Amino acid sequence: MANRAASILVLCIYAVFTTLGNADKCSDVARLEQTAEAMGTTYTVELCGTNQPVLQTAAREAFDEVHRLDRMLSNYIPGSELSRVNDHAADAPVHVSQEFFDLLSQCVNYSNESEGTFDITVGPLMKVWGFYEGAGHLANAAEIRAALNESGYHNLELNAANLTVRFRKHGMALDPGGVGKGYAVDRMVAILRKRGTCSGLVSAGGSSIYGIGAPPADARGWRIRIRDPRNGNRTVSQVYLKDTSISTSGSSEKFFWAGGKRYSHIMDPRTGYPAEGMLSVSVVAPQTLDSEVWAKPYYILGRAWTEQHKPPKFRVFMCEDKPNAPCGWLP
Question: Is the pLDDT of residue 21 over 70?
Answer without folding.
Answer: no
